[in-house]
Specification:
Elements (H helix, E strand, L loop, with lengths): L26 E6 L5 H13 L3 H4 L8 H8 L5 E7 L2 E12 L2 E8 L6 H14 L13 E7 L3 H9 L3 E11 L5 E10 L5
Parallel strand pairs: 4-5
Antiparallel strand pairs: 1-2, 2-3, 3-4, 5-7, 6-7
Helix pairs in contact: 1-3
């Protein structure tokens, strides 16, 4: 599915939202199942591995190989997506932990799209997620919740750049592979700043 970015004003964002995505061309969000099959997911895993990102994305060690990644993407209660820029994989994200009209978001950008493109893709994804309406015309998601290890400075910078409000840090809230844990920074982004 192709969607044009919908600008949404957010006084919390450190940087202005882009008006267009000319440097990236066409952004395409593909869902699993549907627009992503097992071969696509295996290719995404390979990119995560090649970019040295798999251990950062799955910091708890829950996913360690392509087979586990394919199974992970299809687990009940998880909505898994990938973002393609002009046909090239650029990012992946998934939602889980749905509660009312909120959901926990997980987001990873592939190395070729770090920096400014990551912010453009992040705005595109969050705007899209917060604008999808159900059959009743109401938004399916009003609030995106993030839980980020405090040791992941790049991810925390992106969280702030995208306008998420940081609530605080839960001590030992982010389990790491090998049994250790670090603080988890909890943040959220809403459709309406008044709520």
């Amino acid at each position: 599915m192709r969607h044009a970015p919908q600008p949404v004003s957010s006084p919390r964002a450190r940087r202005a939202r882009p008006r267009a995505v000319p440097a990236l061309g066409v952004l395409d969000i593909r869902a699993h199942p549907g627009g992503l099959d097992a071969i696509d997911l295996e290719a995404l895993w390979e990119r995560l591995e090649d970019d040295g990102l798999a251990r950062h994305v799955f910091f708890d060690g829950a996913v360690t190989d392509a087979r586990g990644f394919v199974a992970f993407a299809g687990e009940p209660g998880r909505a898994f997506y990938a973002v393609y820029a002009d046909g090239d994989p650029a990012a992946l994200f998934w939602l889980d932990g749905r509660c009312g009209r909120s959901a926990r978001i997980h987001f990873a950008v592939l190395r070729d799209y770090f920096g400014s493109p990551a912010r453009i893709i992040g705005f595109y994804v969050t705007d899209w997620l917060l604008s999808v309406a159900g059959s009743d015309g109401r938004p399916l998601i009003e609030v995106l919740v993030g839980v980020t290890p405090r040791t992941n400075g790049a991810a925390l910078g992106l969280v702030r750049d995208l306008g998420f409000t940081v609530l605080g840090t839960v001590p030992h809230g982010a389990p790491l592979a090998g049994g250790r844990s670090v603080g988890a920074v909890v943040s959220y982004l809403t459709r309406n700043k008044e709520e």
